[in-house]
Amino acid sequence: MQKYQIRSMTEMDPAEEFKDFAYIVSHDLAGPVRSLVEFSRLLVEQAPVPETDDARTNLSMVLESGEKLQEILHGLLQFSRLNTVPRLDQKVDVEEIVARVHMNRQTDLDMIRGTLNAGNLPEVTGDPNRLYQLFYMLIDNAIKFRRRNQPLIIDIACEETEQAYWISITDNGIGIDPMFHDDVFRPLRKLHNDDVYDGAGMGLTLARKIVLMHGGQIGIGSSDDGTAISFSLPKA
């Protein structure tokens, strides 16, 4: 009997194990990676001009790789914090949240001739900081994965059901192949090379986690006309 008791205490759910691993990696590696990036940047900015183009390219690649690793660690740290920081539970005005995100991204939208349209949005029960993070990441994804040959259009709408509100964020971007609709919610999963679309591959992972923490569901639809992310949030 004691053997099984010890085993049950030492085994860990894979999901919980990943959470702990994400925190350890992102927290303990943050300092060394930050130093790597800072010293690499100093080399690029202050060192004598290298004699060959190859040397200049290599220095820039070291800095770029360090910055990329820093971005990945930041995403993992955000994920781990979702599990360690207590969630607030209060009435939240989604319309106000979206307006704040819109204001903070207006300059970026202007630069790409983008438009964000939001209909009447409800009050829900949840954590205002995490819901801001949710909408920010989904709107950021729409901006990031836009078509370069046409103005971006983002539409945010809401439908009411008996127990929840279903909110959809649609865009006219590049879309996502249906065969990858499950994969894109996995940590660090990327469908494009960094030289095409940058990012750490954590945005939809974090979005899914936030929705689930609020007792909601999330899904994705895509076509040649763009992508639609739909999720539910509890009524206030």
From TrEMBL:
MF (Gene Ontology): phosphorelay response regulator activity; phosphorelay sensor kinase activity; protein kinase activator activity
Pfam families associated with the record: HATPase_c (PF02518), HisKA (PF00512)
PANTHER family assigned: BACTERIOPHYTOCHROME, TWO-COMPONENT HISTIDINE KINASE
SMART domains: HATPase_c (SM00387), HisKA (SM00388)
Keyword Cell membrane (UniProt): no
GO BP terms: osmosensory signaling via phosphorelay pathway
Species annotation: Asticcacaulis excentricus
EC number: 2.7.13.3
Annotated keywords: Kinase, Phosphoprotein, Transferase
Location of the Histidine kinase domain: 24-236
Origin superkingdom: Bacteria
InterPro entries found in the cross-reference section: BphY/WalK/GraS-like (IPR050351), HATPase_C_sf (IPR036890), HATPase_dom (IPR003594), His_kinase_dom (IPR005467), HisK_dim/P_dom (IPR003661), HisK_dim/P_sf (IPR036097), Sig_transdc_His_kin-like_C (IPR004358)
Protein's UniProt name: histidine kinase
